[in-house]
Structure formats: structure tokens, C-alpha cells
Write a structure and sequence with these properties.
Blueprint lengths: L6 H4 L20 E8 L2 E12 L7 H11 L1 E2 L12 H9 L4 E8 L4 E9 L5 H17 L3 H18 L3 H5 L1
Antiparallel strand pairs: 1-2, 2-5, 3-4, 4-5
Helix pairs in contact: 2-5, 3-4
Length: 171
């Protein structure tokens, strides 16, 4: 109605606007690998991502459980050796400094499930991706009842922890 601000009217158009293409549709990439080289050390950060369902879909909890089962591991974190997810042992055999974290991000009608990882040995990146994919297949086809029950018990406290703090408020 009258007096209602609109994006087109209130934001000046610039010839060199770096955000001009911000809202254009982008092509989804299910795997991204970035390598950096700094002060004689090479680091690879990778992400394997799958589009999933949003909060409103009945399978949203399933993806949250998969994320819970894959888990998180960062070398040097205190106590992580006692509660490390199964994926840790295989990745640590490849690279003792490899870290990873799974996540499930849910919106109203869509979501993302993925695993991010970091390694300081770029030459083993293909093996790391294979190991992560193998773990996802293992969870899909060969998950024990005990693992599933343990993940279910740990899911609610992890959801509650994510709601605490300034980041959820900002989201």
C-alpha cells in the first residue's frame, strides 16, 4: 500500500553493485574442496552436502539422527578419544590431524545434510571422501540397533544445546 517501503525504491542502484546477482538462482554443488597454501603448509577443507527435507517433513528427524551418528571430531579436543564416532578411527588411520563435523540444517520446506572436513595432507583428499561416503552407506544399510538407540538418546540434548546462545538468536 501507500507508504510501504519497497526494495526497488529504497535501495540505490549502482553501476558497480557487487550484490546485483545475489538473488539469482545458483547451481547446487554437492561437493566442494578448497586448498590453501600458507607458510609452507597446505590445508584442504572439504564439504560433502546433500539437499534434504525441511522441518515439516517426517524424514527430517532421520537426517538429524544420521548427523548425530556421524558426529564430530577435532584432534586435540579433550575427552574426544573416549566418545569418538566410528568414522574417527578410519579417518585417523589416514591422517591423525583430520577433523570432521556432520550437520543437518533444516528450514521450513528444505534442508541440507553434510559433512565438512579438514586435512593437512591434500594427497589423501579422495580417500577421505571415500571414507565419508562409505560411512553414510554403512549407516543406511548396516547400522546396529545399539548405535541407533544411542543416537536417539543423544539427539534431544544436542538439539537443546543448539538453542542456547547468541548464534540461534541471530539465525
Amino acid at each position: 500500500g501507500p507508504g510501504t517501503p519497497t526494495f526497488e525504491r529504497d535501495v540505490p542502484k549502482l553501476d558497480n553493485d557487487i550484490y546485483a546477482n545475489f538473488w539469482k538462482e545458483t547451481k547446487f554443488q554437492s561437493c566442494e574442496i578448497r586448498q590453501s597454501y600458507n607458510q609452507g603448509h597446505s590445508t584442504v577443507s572439504g564439504s560433502i552436502v546433500f539437499p534434504t527435507y525441511g522441518w515439516s517433513h517426517s524424514d527430517s528427524m532421520t537426517m538429524m539422527l544420521v548427523s548425530q551418528i556421524i558426529g564430530i571430531f577435532a584432534p586435540g579436543d579433550g575427552g574426544s578419544i573416549f566418545s569418538a564416532p566410528p568414522l574417527t578411527k578410519v579417518l585417523q588411520a589416514l591422517d591423525q590431524q583430520c577433523s570432521f563435523q556432520s550437520y543437518s540444517t533444516l528450514y521450513n520446506d528444505t534442508g541440507l545434510f553434510g559433512v565438512v572436513f579438514t586435512t593437512f595432507r591434500p594427497e589423501i583428499t579422495p580417500q577421505i571422501i571415500d571414507v565419508i561416503q562409505s560411512e553414510i552407506r554403512r549407516i543406511a544399510f548396516d547400522l546396529s540397533d545399539d548405535e541407533l538407540e544411542l543416537a536417539k538418546k543423544g539427539l534431544l540434548p544436542n538439539i537443546a544445546l543448539q538453542l542456547d546462545g547468541s548464534q540461534p538468536v541471530a539465525d
